[in-house]
């Protein structure tokens, strides 16, 4: 099997994934998954598509991950892994889509406007 690549984004985080057959090793920015995401919740989020299809021990995953915070990075990685698995086996798309792993969360931070303290907040209005 050749190397399959996919891209996942969430907020400001971008995950580039390279999947090949192996024994289930996930390497993020040349570090192990457990070292990069010490939180077991984030590790669970990353592995969700693999566990749903029952292929957690079948593929080695190499990841380039940058931007955003740790939660956004974990969810971007989940999307990238799901997209890569669909490239490998298109029949899996129905199952992954039902779980919500194929959906790109498009919410982004709204920009700050000039003359205001934040994006939507306004300074207090004074009539006199």
Number of domains: 1
Number of helices: 4
The secondary-structure element order is EEEEHHEHH
What structural category characterises the helix and strand content? alpha+beta
List low-confidence stretches: none
CATH class: Alpha Beta
CATH topology: Ribosomal Protein S5, domain 2
Report the sheet with the most strands, covering strand number, pairing sense and barrel closure: 5 strands, mixed
Q: Write the CATH architecture name.
A: 2-Layer Sandwich
Instruction: Please give the number of β-strands.
Output: 5
Measured as a percent range, the helix fraction is 25-40%
If strands are numbered along the chain, what order do they take across the biggest sheet? 1-2-5-3-4
The gross shape turns out to be elongated
Gyration radius, in Å: 18 Å
Distance between the termini: 73 Å
The share of residues in extended strands comes to 15-25%
Mean pLDDT: 93
Describe, in plain words, how this protein is organized in 3D.
The protein has one domain: Ribosomal Protein S5, domain 2 (2-Layer Sandwich). Helix content is 34%, strand content 23%. It contains 4 helices and 5 strands, in the order ββββααβαα. It has a 5-stranded mixed beta sheet. Strand 3 and strand 4 form a beta hairpin. The chain is elongated. 26% of the residues are buried. The mean pLDDT is 93.
């Amino acid at each position: 099997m050749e190397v399959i690549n996919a891209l996942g984004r969430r907020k400001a985080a971008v995950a580039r994934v390279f999947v090949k057959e192996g024994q289930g090793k996930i390497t993020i920015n040349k570090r192990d998954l457990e070292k990069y995401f010490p939180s077991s919740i984030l590790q669970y989020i990353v592995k969700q598509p693999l566990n749903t299809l029952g292929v957690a021990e079948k593929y080695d995953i190499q990841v380039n991950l940058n931007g955003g915070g740790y939660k956004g990075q974990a969810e971007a990685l989940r999307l990238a892994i799901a997209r890569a698995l669909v490239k490998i086996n298109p029949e899996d798309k129905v199952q992954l889509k039902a779980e919500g792993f194929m959906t790109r969360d498009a919410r982004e931070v709204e920009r700050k406007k000039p003359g205001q303290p934040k994006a939507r907040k306004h300074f207090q209005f004074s009539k006199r």
